[in-house]
Design goal:
The chain folds into 2 domains: about 150 residues, no CATH class; about 140 residues, no CATH class. About 40% of the residues are buried. The radius of gyration is 19 Å and the shape is globular. The protein contains 3 helices and 23 strands. It has a 6-stranded antiparallel β-sheet with strand order 1-23-13-14-15-12, with no helix packed on it. Strands 4-20-19-18-17-5 form a 6-stranded antiparallel β-sheet, with helices on one face. It has a 5-stranded antiparallel β-sheet with strand order 6-7-9-10-11. Helix 1 packs antiparallel against helix 3.
Length: about 300
């Protein structure tokens, strides 16, 4: 499965069958969410219903975009990570790609459909793109194409052996090497039986620039509605709320908000290996670093900012 990873200075790791290590957060405190503990209980059921509605709406939009532009459809296991209110990047594997051999992919194939709302100054503008891979003279090339088929960005692809037995798309932000320089970017792609295929796009540091495509705006509207319900769910637990981190996959849901009063992160977590629950992850003095990150006196930890593919 693809899983979010939370990094802390004192994290232990557990290992899922056939997969990579997943940190266990030592300073996570499980909340009592009963009516006796608060005047209003945390309504996880409402949150899960909102997630189901969100995924249904976005799946329909992604399929409409894919079919309109001759891409077939998308697999339902798409991944969406939104560390900030306006930043959104669903990554969806196109149907039928998981059955392709490495030789078929080498001839050139569209792999994934993505919808990026990116910061000002990023390497490409916000909008829908298709990730295309091919092999030329022994080198794997990743191309980002717009919906009209025009190549807007092309570079050497990150290709390796499959990291898992599952076929999950994924994305993560971080510092990556591009052209001999370390840059802040988003790395996205997918794991297939034929191998792992990823590409990095440099991100700017400005304000998020929403895409103007009507379907992209519809996805953003669905996310905003989902985030409003998330804020309502957390309202009974936080006097002051900042932005809500949201990450959704077909078998997992992670949401987190920073509680400035207690200098901790309040999060709802549900994965294939963990039933849904509300947790407080304690830290020291918190200040702002990269989106999705917080800094404590013991060092930096980045909450759920990586969605890696592991079994």
């Amino acid at each position: 499965m693809g899983s979010f990873q939370a990094f802390t200075s004192g994290a232990e790791t557990t290992r899922l069958e056939g997969g990579e290590p997943i940190p266990t957060i030592l300073n996570a405190e499980h909340f009592d969410v009963s009516l006796q503990s608060r005047q209003v209980a945390f309504d996880a059921t409402a949150l899960e219903r909102a997630n189901a509605r969100f995924r249904e709406e976005v799946t329909a939009i992604l399929n409409r975009v894919a079919r309109t532009h001759g891409l077939g459809g998308v697999e339902p296991n798409w991944v969406m990570v939104s560390p900030l209110g306006a930043m959104i990047s669903p990554v969806a594997l196109l149907q039928g790609r998981s059955e392709m051999t490495r030789e078929e992919l080498a001839k050139g194939q569209d792999l994934a459909l993505v919808d990026f709302s990116l910061p000002e100054g990023s390497e490409v503008p916000s909008g829908f793109y298709v990730l295309h891979v091919r092999q030329e003279n022994g080198r794997w090339i990743a191309a980002l194409r717009d919906l009209q088929g025009k190549v807007v960005l092309q570079r050497e692809a990150e290709v390796g052996p499959p990291a898992s037995r599952s076929q999950w798309p994924g994305r993560q932000t971080g510092i990556y090497s591009l052209g001999g320089q370390n840059v802040y970017g988003v790395r996205f792609g997918t794991e297939l039986p034929a191998g792992s295929f990823h590409m990095v796009v440099r991100l700017g540091r400005g304000q998020i620039v929403p895409a103007q495509d009507p379907d992209a705006r519809a996805i953003t509207a669905a996310l905003e509605a989902f985030r409003r319900e998330a804020r309502a769910a957390f309202a009974a637990w936080l006097k002051e709320q900042r932005d809500v981190f949201i990450a959704s996959r077909s078998d997992a849901l992670v949401m987190a908000v920073l509680d400035p009063e207690s200098k901790s992160l309040v999060s709802y977590l549900r994965t294939a290996c963990q039933s849904g629950g509300l947790y407080r992850i304690r830290a020291g003095a918190v200040d702002s670093v990269l989106p999705g990150a917080a800094r404590s006196s013991e060092g930096t930890f980045r909450l759920f900012e990586q969605w890696q593919s592991v079994s």
